[in-house]
Amino acid sequence: QPLHTLRNAEKELLPGYHQFEWQPALKNVSSSWDVGIIDGLSGWTSSVDDVPADTIARRFRYDVALVSALKDLEEDIMEGLRERGLDDSTCTSGFTVVIKESCDGMGDVSEKHGSGPAVPEKAVRFSFTIMSISIRADGEEDAITIFQEQKPNSELSCRPLCLMFVDESDHETLTAILGPVVAERKAMLESRLILSVGGLLRSFRFFFRGTGYDEKMVREMEGLEASGSTYVCTLCDSTRAEASQNMVLHSITRSHGENLERYEIWRTNPFSESADELRDRVKGVSVKPFMETQPTLD
């Protein structure tokens, strides 16, 4: 046998190794990375200073982690198809997977008698949970849910994707580390995963909901001022004074796109305004938002 066929045969015996394909192929995702734990900065090393870059984060490639999670649920998926009376040989496309993303600081993780590399003493963990899998059968209007996570907030259903030494309020480092994760997530929205489940190739689409972030993290990712800001809400432009007058009539007015536009105004100050006027115009957007967090109830 030529060497590469042996290599491939060997790979398939590794735990956690699964053959899969994206159609179309993912943009902005390096195909050469092997399936395994990769350096969390993956190509951004020049943008983070002060710390030896290769020590700062470790992560899985997002699509590889999702494949592994789906393969873990293989029996549940097949069971769901059987329970709904669906003929599994006709259900090869039209699967929709909803992913809940979570990200939070893990507090102080400093070494008590440190002799390791100089790294920040705070850590942040980014993880995801498969919330539901549904299928739209041919000719049917409504999607049929074949898997629903029973304990969506449990540690057991939550899968770590990236662990990083960084303080959650260090916007620049967080952006540099999660930048590639965001790029992969965006690429996956525009593509379908082809994966063998129950012996047949099936196609999956993914939807991501950032509902596992607490308020501090939402503010961090959307580029808003911290919790002490006059602009108190992450979803609308209320100031503290307005919110205390009016506890009821609020509409969701912020969007990720709008926050990006406001950041550009903050950066360029096109109307040559004073700092106070400018701040009033951008309503508490102070840095470039880098991850879209959608206002949905968990």
From TrEMBL:
Residues 231-293 form the V(D)J recombination-activating protein 1 ZnC2 domain. GO terms for molecular function: double-stranded DNA endonuclease activity; histone binding; protein homodimerization activity; sequence-specific DNA binding; ubiquitin protein ligase activity; zinc ion binding. Residues 1-20 form the V(D)J recombination-activating protein 1 DNA-binding domain. InterPro entries: RAG1, RAG1_DNA-bd, RAG1_pre-RNase_H, RAG1_RNase_H, RAG1_ZnC2. GO terms for biological process: adaptive immune response; B cell differentiation; chromatin organization; T cell differentiation in thymus; V(D)J recombination. One of its GO terms (cellular component) is endodeoxyribonuclease complex. Residues 21-93 form the V(D)J recombination-activating protein 1 pre-RNase H domain. Residues 97-229 form the V(D)J recombination-activating protein 1 RNase H domain. It comes from the Eukaryota. It holds the Pfam family RAG1_DNA-bd. PANTHER family: V(D)J RECOMBINATION-ACTIVATING PROTEIN 1, VDJ RECOMBINATION ACTIVATING PROTEIN 1 RAG1. This is RAG-1. The gene is RAG1.
